[in-house]
Amino acid sequence: MQGMNIDVFLSIAIPLSLYFLITLAGSFVKDMYNSIRGTDTSFRLYRILIGSLFSAFVMVGLENWLLKHIGLKEIVVLAFFVGLLSFELFERLSNIDGLFKFYQTYQQIKRGEKVDLHDKPTLSDCTENKDKPPPKEDEEKKK
Fold first, then answer.
1. CA–CA separation, 15 and 58 (whole Å)
2. Which residues of 19-49 are buried (b: 16+ CB within 10 A; e: fewer)?
3. Which H or E element spans position 109?
4. Do the beta carbons of residue 48 and residue 27 sit within 8 Å?
5. What is the chain's percent helix, strand, coil content, to nearest 5?
6. What is the per-residue pLDDT across 82-117, written as a single tens digit (0 to 9) for each?
7. CA torsion 95→34→50→123, rounded to 10°?
8. Which of 3, 24, 102, 137 is 20 to 30 A from 126, comparing alpha carbons?
9. Tens digit of each residue's pLDDT (9 = 90 or more) over 45-66
10. Model-level pTM?
11. Rounded Cα–Cα distance for residues 50 and 27 (Å)
12. What pLDDT score does 138 carry?
């Protein structure tokens, strides 16, 4: 068994650092785009850093497969887009309802069902008593 020497360390650390910088640029561009568009007025560095670090690890894991199937320039572009997507993915999965929606969508895709990405049930929808009739509107609200 080979121990951790400097060559092994550098063969992991250098690509990880480069992927981190590229995905950081993608996440930063997405946050700036959201700020300019007005959908998100605050700059959250932790969201950018966590998304970029996660994306960098994903890219290092896929690196050998990607090098066999696509070129180096395409990998750089893909890393940038993964940075953009990781920002969105972290935004959606940052709460329990987002995780639940992601899991429900995954299960539907796995079963081969048609997926409607616009209207997904929340955790509270699935835990409520289904036998209970829907709430009636107050008579005052109707008038």
1. 11
2. bbebbbbbbbebbeebeeeeebeeeeeebbe
3. helix 96-111
4. yes
5. 70, 0, 30
6. 888 887 777 666 667 777 777 788 788 888 887 776
7. 10
8. 137
9. 888 888 888 888 888 888 888 8
10. 0.61
11. 10
12. 54
Question: Structure tokens of 121?
Answer: 């049930």
Longest dimension (CA), the chain: 79
Amino acid at position 41, single letter:
T
User: What is the crossing angle of helices 45-69 and 72-92, to 10°?
Assistant: 140
For residue 48, what are the CA distances in angstroms to 23, 24, 26? 9, 7, 9
Q: Which residue has the tokens 């409607």?
A: 116
Rounded CA gap, 140 and 108, in Å? 41
Q: What is the 3-state secondary structure (H, E, C) of 1-15?
A: CCCCCHHHHHHHHHH
Q: Which amino acid is at 125?
A: D
Q: Three-class SS of residue 104?
A: helix
Phi-psi region of 112 (alpha: psi -120 to 50; beta: other; left: phi over 0): left
